[in-house]
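Morning run. Coffee first, then this:
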Amino acid sequence: MKINEGSLDRTLRVIAGLILLALGLLHVISGVWVWVAVIFGAILLVTGLIGFCPLYTLLKINTARK
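And here it is:
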């Protein structure tokens, strides 16, 4: 796994992931959207923390400095 996310990208992912997780886990939203928020929040949080996004690899996107 090679880092393919820049620092701004990683920061925004972590913030968005935490917000989505909070919305889902605190039941601010309801229904199926709780699961959608928790799943996407977890994905964003993990990819932001490790700096690697598999989707970026498939799309050949790299926001990290070379």
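Residues 7-59 form one domain. Good start to the day.
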